[in-house]
Every structure is written in C-alpha cells, then in structure tokens.
Amino acid sequence: MNPDLFENLRLELRRGCVVLAVLAALRSEQYGYTLRKALSERGLEIDEGTLYPLLRRLESQGLLDSQWREEAKRNKRFYRLSSEGREVLGRLLTEWRAIGASLDEILDETEG
Amino acid sequence: MKVHAPHDQSGPAELVERYLQSVRFLLPRRQRDDVHRELSAEIRDAVEEQEAAQGRPLDADQVTAVLQRFGHPLTLALRYQPSRTVAAVTCCTSDLTLAEFRTLRAKMDASVPSAATAQGYLGRSPAPTWRASAAGPARRRPSTA
C-alpha cells in the first residue's frame, strides 16, 4: 500500500470533523490557546498552524464572532459562535449523526 | 572551547520575532497587523506555559519546536487565505485522439496554481529563452561513454 494513502484519507476525514469540533467548542467563548487545550484534553490534537488560520476563516465566513480583550494583562482575541454559526452547527450535527447511523447500518449488514 | 549550534545562534526571543516577521511579510496587507498581533500573543502563551511546566526558560531548540507546531511561515500564511484549493489537473493519453496526440509539444515544467483557466495554469509558452540552452539538444548533455 502507498504509505501516503492512509494518511491522506485520514486527513480528509479529519478535516471536516475538526471544523465541527471547533464550532461546538466555541459555543462558549475562548481564545486560541485555551480552545486548543480544551480540544486536546478531549483527545483532539490540533496543531497551532491549523487552528489559528481555521479560526480566522470561520470568522470571515460569519460563523464566529471575535473580539480583542485583555486577560491576565495581555490582549487576546476571543472567539465565539455567531448566531449564524449556531444554526450551521445544528445542521452539521444532524448531518454528522445521519452519516454515523448510515455507516453503522452498512457495517451491520456486511457483518451479518 | 565554545561550541555553537551549527544551524542557528539566535536567542529564543529573536527566533520568535524573526518567525513573526516572516509570517507577517507573507500575509496580505489587510490581515498583517491583526494576525501578527494574535500570533504573537498565542506564541507567547505557548512558550510561557512550557516554561512554567519545566521551571526555566526555553532554549533555542525548544522554541524552535514550538514554532514548528505553527508551521513553516509560508504554509501558515497560505492557510490564512480563504481558498486553499490549488489547481489539480490530470491529463490521460486515453482522452486524446491520435491527431490530437500528434499536436502535443514539450513544455517547460512550470505551472501557475492560482490560475483560473487551463491556459493560465500552463503559464508562459513557449519556454523563456533562458531555459532554451538548458533544455537543448541531447548531444550537448555530458556523456559517460
């Protein structure tokens, strides 16, 4: 097997899941560093180089709101889900669960 | 005798500053200040957290490891762009008729990933003159015979 094949498929699968996880985590406001830690504590490691640009892109798409605020005597950029983001997240989660349910059924059939 | 790291002799703070400046330079003007400010704060947090954990300042290698998680400046800057889709073109000889096949001409191996049309993707044609000598006749290539 091409050694890159699995890695490519894994990254492709992961990409959408990371967006979902970031949106879900930002139902409560956080800045980049604490968000990354929160995700990592739940087993989802995201490199800084992936996370920070992603936050900006989601913000420019209107899914996140952000604001500069001081915390611990340092300015941080805080992100949170926008109202549009909340709606999109809801729809994505429905989709996610439907895909999972279908996959389970397909797996059951082939095993049975 | 004092031994220097062969690759870099900069201090940790200087490494971070140089990294930030590289990323900044590669970003579109309208994003520069804002992204620079955010990355600067986030990198400092990451460094300080690790320093608190180990109870002493990070050395240059450790700072480099932190920066590596942020990625190469060019990679990082590109990720801030709205679309990361790069042109992907596949040409199969089976798609061509024999007549079309006979019209094919060699071209310098170069492309313009940001192009919006097939012609644009192929870039300049014919090859620029500086390339002509390098791609010259086979008999001019060094021979082992």
Structure description:
The complex is a heterodimer of chains A (112) and B (145). By secondary structure, chain A is of the alpha+beta class. Helices cover 67% and strands 16% of the residues of chain A. Chain A has helices spanning 3-25, 32-41, 48-60, 83-111, and strands spanning 30-31, 64-71, 74-81. In chain A, strands 1-3-2 form a 3-stranded antiparallel β-sheet. The radius of gyration of chain A is 17 Å and the shape is globular. The mean pLDDT of chain A is 92. Chain B is mainly α and 145 residues long. Chain B has helices at residues 12-26, 29-54, 60-70, 73-79, 98-102, 118-122, 129-134. The radius of gyration of chain B is 24 Å and the shape is elongated. Residues 1-6 of chain B have low confidence and may be disordered.
* Largest interface by Cβ-Cβ < 8 Å: A-B, 18 and 19 residues
Rounded Rg of chain A: 17 Å
**Mean pLDDT metric of chain A:** 92
Average residue-wise pLDDT of chain B: 76
Radius of gyration of chain B: 24 Å
The multimeric state of the shown protein is heterodimer
Largest sheet composition of chain A: 3 strands, antiparallel
- Uncertain stretches of 5 or more adjacent residues of chain B: 1-6
**N-end to C-end Cα span of chain A:** 28 Å
Number of helices of chain B: 7
Question: What is the overall silhouette of chain B?
Answer: elongated
Beta content of chain A: 15-25%
How big a fraction of the residues of chain B is strand? Answer: under 5%
Shape of chain A: globular
Q: Gap between N and C termini of chain B, in Å?
A: 50 Å
